[in-house]
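User: Hi! I have a protein structure encoded as tokens and I'd like to know what sequence might fold into it. I'm fairly new to this, so please keep things simple.
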């Protein structure tokens, strides 16, 4: 019985794979060419940066979608990057009235949280660290 459990655990651990773009660090937004990004199938809500188009894509669960509308008006604009001892922060304006700040832990890759709001986009570390993240 112990051997069977051991075999199952080894099989599961060998079956689990992740999709990281070539040469990509394991923290922050993944990046790669548009061809590399769109070749991946991953989980819904992943965001990746296209190094050749200089824009972000997100995965909607089926397809990679540009963060542009059909009339090529930018939806995500004014990306601002900050860091402190424990976190990286990315503040983006989503449209003319909304913003989002992503917070990434420097030590726990599973600790990614967000804060969203309307009005003026947070543009300094003091304001950003005072936000409520979930």
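Assistant: Happy to help. Inverse folding works backwards from shape to sequence: for each of the 134 positions I chose a residue that suits the local structure. Here it is:
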């Amino acid at each position: 019985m112990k051997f069977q459990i051991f075999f199952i655990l080894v099989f599961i651990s060998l079956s689990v794979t992740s999709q990281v773009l070539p040469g990509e660090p394991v923290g922050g937004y993944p990046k790669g060419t548009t061809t590399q990004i769109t070749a991946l199938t991953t989980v819904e809500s992943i965001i990746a940066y296209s190094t050749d188009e200089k824009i972000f894509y997100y995965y909607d669960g089926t397809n990679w979608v540009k963060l542009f509308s059909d009339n090529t008006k930018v939806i995500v604009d004014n990306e601002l990057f900050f860091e402190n001892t424990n976190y990286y922060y990315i503040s983006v304006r989503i449209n003319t009235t909304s913003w989002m700040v992503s917070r990434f832990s420097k030590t726990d890759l599973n600790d990614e949280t967000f804060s969203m709001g309307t009005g003026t986009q947070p543009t300094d570390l003091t304001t950003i660290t005072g936000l409520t993240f979930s």
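A useful reference point when you look it over: Confidence is low (pLDDT under 50) at residues 6-20. Feel free to ask if any position seems puzzling.
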